[in-house]
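Lecture 7 notes: from sequence to structure.

We start with a single chain of 108 residues. Read the sequence below before looking at the structure.
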Amino acid sequence: MDMVINILIASVAFYIGGLLLSGVEMKSFVQCIIIALVVGVLDVTLGNFLKIVTLGIFSIGIFNWLLNAILIQVADWFLPGFKVKNFWWALGLAAVVSIASSILDKVI
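Now the structure, written as tokens:
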């Protein structure tokens, strides 16, 4: 049940990011759920691989933010209807999603 709640929180965070950032396009909330799932799977697989490759040296702070932006861009490449104009918009979306997820997690 916790996993479903986390996916819904991430979905709402992506939806908020799509509303706030003009360089990010999403078609619907259902697509936000799919985006949250894809980014979550990418984080578990590719994200963990990148953290291992960098020997965990850069696995804190700004590197996690950059890593999330990279994973968002990879998800953009895979998912039709989800468009992020460039890396800077992906960084912005990563920041909005992180902040919104934290706030929503505290509220729920």
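The helical segments are 2-20, 29-53, 62-78, 87-107. Keep this in mind for problem set 3.
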